[in-house]
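To whoever is on call:

I kicked off a structure prediction for a single chain this morning and the downstream step that reads the tokens threw a length-mismatch warning. I double-checked the sequence; it's 483 residues and nothing unusual in it as far as I can see. Pasting both halves so you can look.
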Amino acid sequence: MKDGRRGQMGGRVLSVASECVPLVKTGGLADVVGALPGALKGAGWDMRVLIPAYRQLRDMAAEWPEVLVEQALWGGTGRVLAGEVKGVAVLLLDAPHLYDRDGGPYNGPGGDHWDNAQRFAALSWVAARIAREGLGDWKPDVLHAHDWQAGYAPAYLAYHGNGGCRSVMTVHNIAFQGQSSAVMLGDLRLPASAFHPGALEYYGGISSLKAGLVTADRITTVSPTYATELMRPEFGMGLQGVISARAGVVSGILNGVDLDVWSPEVEAENAYSSRDMAGKAAARAGLCAEFGIEVPGPLAIIVSRLTDQKGIDLLPAALPDFLDGGGGLVILGSGDPGLEAAVRGLVARFPGRVGLRIGYDEGLSHRMFQGADAVLVPSRFEPCGLTQLYGLRYGTLPVVAAVGGLADTVINASPAAMAAGVATGISFWPTDALAFAGALRRLLALHADRKAWARVQKNAMAAAVGWQTSAAAYAALYQGLKG
């Protein structure tokens, strides 16, 4: 079927994901999925976002119109409901037998939902049908699938017909791959003829992420450095060969942040800008009071999942010299029980210098970026990262491991960068306690040089961390697929 819109600038995109701000969020994926539609609107792209109707979303959508019904959806009927939430055009897949459950998107009180493979295959199946057939007079030019939860969507287009719709697969974090037993191939509506290493077979089983990687028309990751890293065994986590084989269609596009939400100028209390930093000083005093700490030197924060990937295990060895030198640290996060115990141990070991809140609190995270001097991101791998971008925007200097998007977004305060006046933070390599401790010593020295600190802080706050550049890159990618 000839598409009369082909060749025109702009078009229609169906974005399919497991979470989306402001509806449901467990991590940075939701921020990206929620921000893209608005960011692309100015370039003429009409993006609608398909996510599951989890229990907490069903009441909100009770009056939304039904735009599609899928009868045979892994044990029941699914309905697609259409609405708009804070400017985002949303399609909710309402299938109570799959999504109306206690807990989060992926797990309940007893751990991962036992049928996650089918739950997200259903999401992908409906996404592929919408891409193939459209919804009334709205038919997408491109299907954009995010992470393993949507990985089968490009595969269903490839194996069951695409109706002229092209596909993009974005890897936000390759550590999560949606693996299942090979015996589920038929149940997941995948062809037995494609069960071989060049297509769906993955170490004797199947992976929804690999399925998307081998069938999508284009592959993106969320930073240029991560796109290159994924072709190496130390970062590719078993999929490096798949990505290397498709290197010609792989690109890295950095994430951005929503500047209407994450900017010091728009905060309700203690607002500030690079021209007047008085609000930051007030926010710092408030943060120290909130956690009962006194910090004569730089006050650092960590807002993170507490996992080895994030380098949290390095803290007990890397922090002592920093804290003894006058630094302080406030931590917000949760994760591995052993690492939660380790950071509690830091509070006991350094009373008055380390503050801790286990869990996540959006309001507190804003107060932390407002009041801190630095944000620590010692990740072993980091596809893009958002916390360092928040840090730049708030003049809270990032101290980062030089991996993935951290390497792409933070200019290290090396002698050359300082002389050229372009530094925006501190980076280190490799990701180990020795290098991290060295970076923290550099943070102490930079903070003690008030003129140099102010210069780097202004550079950081001037960095382009919004969606404008990234949205233009996505628009160009879609346009190239549309033809």
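Update from on-call: the warning came from a stale cache, not from the record. Cleared it. Sanity check on the structure: Residues 11-256+468-482 form a domain with the Rossmann fold fold (CATH 3.40.50.2000).
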